[in-house]
Amino acid sequence: MTTSAPVRVARDGWIVARRNLIKIKRVPEVLVFVLISPIMFVLLFAYVFGGAIDVPGEVDYKEFLVPGIFVQTVVFGATFTGAGLAEDMQKGIIDRFRSLPMSRSAVLIGRTTSDVFYNVISVTIMALTGLVIGWRIREGVLDAATAFLILLVFAYSVSWIMAYVGLLVPSVEVVNNASFIVIFPLTFVSNAFVPTESFDGVLRTFVEWNPVSTATQACRELFGNTDPSVPVPDAWSMQHPTIYTLLISMAIVAVFAPLATRQYKLSTTK
Amino acid sequence: MADMVRASGLVKRYKSVEALSGLDLTVQEGTVLALLGPNGAGKTTAVRVLATLLTPDAGTAEVAGIDVLANPAGVRERIGLSGQYAAVDEHLTGYENLEMVGRLYDLGRVKARARARELLEQFGLAEAGDRPAKTYSGGMRRRLDLAGALVAAPPLLILDEPTTGLDVRSRLQLWDVIRELVAGGTTLLLTTQYLEEADRLADEIVVIDHGKAIARGTADQLKAQTGGERIEVVLADAARRDAAERVLALVARGPVQVDDDGRSLVAPVHDGQRALARTLREFEDAGIAVLELGLRRPTLDDVFLSLTGHAAEADPSSETVEVSA
Ligand SMILES: Nc1ncnc2c1ncn2[C@@H]1O[C@H](COP(=O)(O)OP(=O)(O)OP(=O)(O)O)[C@@H](O)[C@H]1O
Ligand SMILES: [Mg+2]
Question: Measured between alpha carbons, how far is B186 from B171 in angstroms, rounded to an integer?
Fold first, then answer.
């Protein structure tokens, strides 16, 4: 039986993704631990730091916070991709994959694809947590759906960054530590927890062009968690957060998918 | 007959060791070649190069006429590999593992499913087939991994120490499966530390040590290289040693060896059967009682010892230490 190359990539990727999903089904504890930290962040910022943070306009801090937590959750969730790949690379199963006539990028595509499902689950849980503490969707269903879609697309692109990291480092523990080097500046030097206005100079520019900020901004606008009377920062990225976030997500995939694929080939024939 | 595997001058260097230092290897279609060597000899490295998992630093290799380096994808379509350490997914059931491999071999969903059940049956895993592989014993994992190599019924099967860690029954069963496959036309390249295994299964044996082939031939040819038969005696009473040695000297074609304990003697002989009969008679006449008396053909252990100067045993630098049979 012969199958054309692109079909084969998609199909093999799906077969590997299905295998990863079976693991989540068999070991659901994995999900619990990765979700605990965002829930702790919600509680910490909403009830501990929240009082000290001023949000411009007539918006409750909890409403302001939850879209930021969504973005933080999916960015943290990408660690899962890196850790999963690093684990696979150490386990015997990778030798089986490599000796099969399957598409070479299927292991990576399968991993990033199964993590989309994982993100759907984690965003759902975070949304429920948000609703409990007082966050609301104030715009239409279509806008809300667009917001969730942007979250998933952005998450997918970050998965590829972490896939690359997962292949560069030798073990799962190192992935978890290394990922913080990527994740911490991205999520904390952003408008996810504090307003853009609280940054100055170079930091302010970084915040405005940081995709975590624009994804957060896009979600806030689409869910209706902003005060329309408060002006949005002048930067193009903040003026067009949806388009900017989609463009930068595509750019990230365009750069990191080939990098990760190359690294996979390198680290599997040494 | 065409060559299924043709490798020449394979070199693979790691920082401090040369795992392969110019290995040449040929396996004819439809035959079994055993790569025999102690821990650290380079068996796994050689297998991984042929299975496209490792790029050699020098040398060329072809599988079924396809260049391993130029067209690894083509090679992968024609091989089934079972590596030294079981390549199974612990969280999947045995059935899911095999079905996944079948799909990735492009068998199609229906065929992949049927094949998975068939193999579980064949390898005595039918009952455990719907349990996660995590719950399998070492031997069961090993068998599941072997089944994985057979999913697509590839023309070349590469097995790296397939029976290490299996109990005697499973080992015999596996040998049967292997013989059946070979009878059906499959070519087999297998590595082993068990001399008996090479003897039983292989048409040709390549002995490797320090990354190089140091001898090759059929089991009989290798044994002939080591020298012929010999008579081995264990005396009931050490006091009769000198008398026994005199008798053996009559039939021996070389010096008679006496062991430290003074009760075991070994004599190399030409015509084994007649020499044995004569020894028996002379012992009878002289009233020498024996615990054991026998004719022994050289084993591959002897072959190994005479070729490498050390027995086929664990290399201290290697991680896995196993005592060979
Ligand atoms: N990735 C590696 N890095 C460094 N050295 C290696 C590596 N892989 C193998 N070696 C070395 O190469 C040599 C050959 O190893 P190989 O695994 O091929 O031996 P083997 O014949 O399969 O041994 P065993 O019977 O123990 O499985 C050994 O000295 C080993 O230490
Ligand atoms: Mg080995």
Answer: 19
Which tens digits make up the pLDDT trace of A126-178? 899 899 988 888 888 899 999 999 999 999 999 999 999 999 887 888 888 88
CA angle (B193 as vertex; B187, B196 as ends), nearest 5: 75
- The CATH architecture of the domain made up of B228-297 is 2-Layer Sandwich (3.30)
Query: Which of A16, A24, A100 to probe by mutation at the B interface, max B CB count within 10 Å?
Result: A100
pLDDT score at A3? 65
How far is Cα B39 from Cα A193, in angstroms, rounded to an integer?
58
- pLDDT band per the 50, 70, 90 thresholds, residue B316: very low
The ipTM (two decimal places) reads 0.85
- On the question of pLDDT at A206 being above 90, the answer is yes
pLDDT of residue A256: 96
Whether residue B156 contacts residue B26, with contact meaning beta carbons closer than 8 Å, is answered with: no
Measured in angstroms, the CA of B104 and the nearest CA of chain A are apart by 6
Q: Does A93 touch chain B (CB under 8 A)?
A: yes
Separation of B17 CA from ligand 1 center, angstroms? 9
| Residue whose entry in the numeric block shows the structure tokens 């901004």 | A217
> Topology of domain B3-78+154-223, per CATH?
Rossmann fold (3.40.50)
Task: Ligand 1, residue B20: give the atom nearest the CA.
Answer: 14
Total domains in the fold of chain A: 1
CB-based contact, B148 to chain A, within 8 Å: yes
Q: What is the pLDDT of residues B122-166, one digit of tens each?
A: 888 999 999 999 999 988 998 999 999 999 999 999 999 998 878
Dist CA B160 CA B144 (whole Å)? 14
